[in-house]
Every structure is written in structure tokens, then in C-alpha cells.
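Figure 3 (text version): C-alpha cells given as input.
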């Protein structure tokens, strides 16, 4: 699924370049928005795709959980504070819709073996953006930082567990994020496609009430992993 997400990123970006790329990549381009990055503060918004997964560690090896992520949708805002000619501080609160399918071995019926885990995340990342020297209307950058995420679909307050087909995780998680992107300067706006990885710090799983549960008893930790593809407009 992460491969599909990356392919979507390439297809959408290439179509955008096909429509608007001449003014950006021409041999002697007119310099667009020449003073845009000198603003102390500026705002924007993003739309995009994501693929969420779990990194699972086990107490005893064997009977691994098969996790398959589905491509989700992202939308959010961007606040950018200029700290230096090449460094910016960014706050990018966003809404992320995600879905994973967990398949457990050792069961004979799908109702026990499969868990459809849907999630609605509100993500609060605080990031540093390290930009290169601008060349014409193109400026690559690296971005990294930390984030806190609220899962509105965590089921954390439910007394039911996997014995009642209820998969539960903690509502709040902490992550670090790292990625790269390109700022493209057009006549009236700046467009920034980017790709970023998200790596959870803490164990998210809420164990079943039975400590010997076949769904959670052997899990040492379960942490979020995700690939985010965002198309940002300033």
C-alpha cells in the first residue's frame, strides 16, 4: 500500500508539472514570488494521501499479525515562521482518515481472525524545515520534527475487547516525523509536494481484559508507522 501511495504522489505531481511546469522549469524562467520567503509569517493549507501501518514487536516470536494499510485522505493547515534564511518553524495541524486490516493466524473463522481498524486522527506536528539555496523557481527542502496525535476512533473507553470484536488503542500518541519536499514558485502561489514518514514513540495497544488473549497477549508493543504525501499551497 505504501508503494501505491508513492505512485499516486508521482502521478499527481507529474500531472501538475505538465500543466504548470513550463514557467518553473524553463531555461530562463521569470522569477516568481521573489520576496515570498522573506515574510516573517505566512499561511497555507494542504491536501494529500497517507498509508498507516503498525510496527509490532512480540514477547515470543511466531504467529505474527499481518497488517495491511489502505490509502487514506489528509487535509490541514500550515503555519510557517521564518527563523533564518534557510530554516523555518512549521505547525501543520491536520485531519487524517486511515484504515488498517489486521489478520491473526490460528483462527478458523474470519470474525475472529480479521480486525478492520479504522481511525480518524487529528495530528499536531511541530517541524523544522531546512531549505536549500533557491534556484530559479525551485527550492528543495528537508523537514523533521515531533508530533502528537489524537485518535478519535481509539475505542479506549470501551469495556468490550477483542472477545466482542472490539480492537482498542490509546487515544494519544507521540511520534517523530522526517521527510523531504520541493517548493515550486508560480506566478500567484507556491506549491510544495512532499513525502514524510511518521514513526510512533510509544506502545498504543490496549490489551484485552484476559492477559492470555490470543489477540493481544503476545504483543510486546504496537507502534504507528505511516507515509504521508501532502500537496501544500501557500
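Below: residues designed for each position.
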Amino acid at each position: 500500500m505504501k508503494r501505491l501511495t508513492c505512485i499516486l504522489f508521482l502521478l499527481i505531481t507529474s500531472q501538475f508539472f505538465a500543466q504548470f511546469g513550463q514557467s518553473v522549469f524553463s531555461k530562463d524562467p521569470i522569477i516568481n514570488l521573489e520576496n515570498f520567503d522573506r515574510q516573517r509569517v505566512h499561511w497555507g493549507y494542504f491536501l494529500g494521501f497517507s498509508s498507516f501501518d503498525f510496527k509490532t514487536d512480540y514477547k515470543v516470536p511466531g504467529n505474527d499479525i499481518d497488517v495491511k494499510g489502505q490509502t487514506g485522505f489528509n487535509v490541514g493547515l500550515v503555519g510557517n515562521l521564518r527563523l533564518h534564511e534557510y530554516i523555518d518553524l512549521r505547525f501543520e495541524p491536520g485531519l487524517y482518515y486511515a484504515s488498517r486490516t489486521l489478520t491473526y493466524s490460528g483462527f478458523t473463522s474470519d470474525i475472529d481472525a480479521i480486525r478492520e481498524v479504522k481511525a480518524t486522527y487529528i495530528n499536531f506536528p511541530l517541524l523544522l524545515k531546512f531549505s536549500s539555496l533557491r534556484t530559479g523557481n525551485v527550492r528543495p527542502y528537508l523537514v523533521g520534527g515531533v508530533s502528537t496525535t489524537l485518535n478519535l476512533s481509539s475505542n479506549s473507553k470501551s469495556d468490550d475487547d477483542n472477545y466482542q470484536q472490539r480492537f482498542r488503542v490509546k487515544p494519544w500518541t507521540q511520534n517523530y516525523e522526517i521527510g523531504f519536499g520541493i517548493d515550486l514558485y508560480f506566478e500567484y502561489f507556491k506549491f510544495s509536494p512532499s513525502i514524510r514518514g511518521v514513526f510512533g514513540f510509544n506502545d498504543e495497544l490496549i490489551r484485552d481484559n484476559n492477559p492470555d488473549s490470543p489477540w493481544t497477549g503476545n504483543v510486546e508493543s504496537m507502534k504507528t508507522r505511516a507515509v504521508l504525501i501532502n500537496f501544500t499551497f501557500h
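Helices lie at 2-20, 22-25, 110-113.
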